[in-house]
Amino acid sequence: MSQWDVKTVSELKHELRSRGLSVTGRKTELVGRLITSEDGVGVIEAELVEDITDSSAVDLIGSLVSNSITRIRGLPVAALVVAGIMVFGATGGALLYGDDIVDWIQGEPDYVLIDFDANQTRAYAQGLVDLGHPQWEGRLSGTVEEENTAQSIKLNFSNSGMPATLEAFEVPLFYMGNDFELMICIPGNLGNIFGGPTPCSIADVDRDETDFTHRVDYVIQGYSGHRDIVASSDVNVIDLGMGNESADWGSAANGIGLVWLMDGQDGQPGTESNTALMLRAQENSLSGLITVNARQNCDDLVSGDCVPYFKSLDITQFNETPYDIGFMMVSRSVGEMIRDQVIEGEGMLQFVVEVENQVSVNVHVPCGIMEGESDSLIIIGAHHDTVYNGQGAVDNTAGTATVQEMARQFGLLQIDLGQPKHTIYFCTWGGEEEGLWGSSEWVKKHQSTLRENLRLYINLDMNHVDAQRNSGLTLQGNSPDDVGHIGGLVSAFAKSYPNLYSKYDINVRHLNSNEMPFNSDHAPFVYNLDEGEDGHKYYGKAVICYGSGSSEYHTYLDSMDRFNEESLMISGIIYGSLVRYLAWG
Asked: Following DSSP, what letter does each residue of 536-582 receive, concatenated?
């Protein structure tokens, strides 16, 4: 008996993960894998076994075979021929091969591509967009629009022939009111006369007002607080430049700070995140914070201007939620008007933001579940929530529609092929735009199961290519074997869809686990599974897809007008075919 035979399955898997080895299989396989890694036992060195009668011993040999493949693949052919790669069973002298040996002998697998209906995917997308807010169009997390979206997705999973669940998680989000206003008032002649009416008050009848349009000229930012500042109060507005630590934030106390979003130059840092800016606003008792977009989508969407967009902040970084600091982004042209007419002129700013951000609301996670022969899990996911201020056709209606079409195709595959080897989940997440809430809470709830059984997570977020700004898309992940399969599937895709392949550049990249970005719902599956008692960090396996050309990102212009369902076929077919290969061979 080895030292591993007395360990529990959980302890064995813990040790295997720390060595970067597979944790699937029965206990005898896990023990064999650890013995192999300790002793350096490989198939090349294995002796002929003649008296095996116990099935567990056969399993052990299978484990030895499987775990030696990486070394075998690196050996010269002559050495392989001399050594042989065979083990005889006692009962009939049958030749036993591990799955990896078969793959190695056969060469690259003969991949079978799944079907994918682009028109049906567009129909899914349009159905999601139609569920948006009647005025703002978005499906903001925690709203009735987001809940209705989750219910609709669950129904579509059920219609694809699989059991479906819907989980809700209470998280600290914000509630958008209906009263938003940004206006510059130039006092009238009467308002400038000593003893006359208050400048920019209702009595100042010849005042000049410029009202700005919500969503087009300005956009409320995530976790903005509530603030109502009328023009006649003549609030102090201070230009804080790029808003870095060196800016005089204290001069804007009880007033409004104006920060210009710009990239750094000459080695100097650019504007920091919303989180850093809001923390400084809170520390210095600002009443309002206005960021000016001067670095993203400039001249791409509106000639000579930069369109404001929604961004959130990491509320977990705050000791106290900033409930009374209004926070919005304006276009570059509006920012220049505030600077010229208010900061450097006699204009007065009206600034009204109605947001309640000290509330907890539910975000939703619907999943369609295809039970497999094992507990090993493959999860395909996308976030179904959007920013509040637009349809979110690309971000991320595109990804959610792709997941629904993949689920439909797998429902049809199961009829033909039967039960898959792995259990496959199709899930969509709420709360992504405010901080990956849905996926993070779901991973936290199911952490034990995921830690033991997660085979692969696939994330589709903005897996869309703009037809007129096509610069291809990137398929990447932290699992070398899976990334290798993706490369083979790209070749198969090129043969089956030569026109699409020639139209879109497809880049395949392998990243180390600690290089995986923390910017979408794959992150909890990669980084949040567990940390062992020895401090060893466990990383989940994931592959992700990024499209291109979506300058409308997080603006009111991210609509179905530019939706390109054809481009979704690339990630849908290639990643779907990867799952098909893993599930059915």
From this structure: PEE---EEEEE-B--TTTTSTT-SGGG--GGGHHHHHHHHHHHHHHH
Q: Render the burial of 238-250: b for 16+ CB within 10 Å, e for the rest.
A: bbbebbbeebebe
pLDDT tens digit at each of 585 positions of the chain: 556 665 666 666 667 655 656 656 666 667 777 776 665 433 322 333 333 334 333 333 343 333 433 333 333 444 343 334 333 333 333 333 344 444 444 566 889 999 999 999 999 999 999 999 999 999 999 999 999 999 999 999 999 999 999 999 999 999 999 999 999 999 998 766 666 789 999 999 999 999 999 999 999 999 999 999 999 999 999 999 999 999 999 999 999 999 999 998 877 889 999 999 999 999 999 999 999 999 999 999 999 999 999 999 999 999 999 899 999 999 999 999 999 999 999 999 999 999 998 889 999 999 999 999 999 999 999 999 999 999 999 999 999 999 999 999 999 999 999 999 999 999 999 999 999 999 999 999 999 999 999 999 999 999 999 999 999 999 999 999 999 999 999 999 999 999 999 999 999 999 999 999 999 999 999 999 976 566 678 899 999 999 999 999 999 999 999 999 999 999 999 999 999 999 999
Read off φ and ψ for residue 474, nearest 5 degrees: -120, 130
Domain 118-163+371-584 CATH assignment equals 3.40.50.2300: no
Domain topology for 175-359:
Glucose Oxidase; domain 1 (3.50.30)
In the chain, where the domains are located: 9-106, 118-163+371-584, 175-359
In sequence order, what are the beta bridge partners of 165? 367
pTM of the model: 0.82
Cis peptide before 189 (omega within 30 of 0): no
> What would the two tokens of residue 483 be?
């990334």
Return d(Cα 127, Cα 363) in angstroms, integer. 20
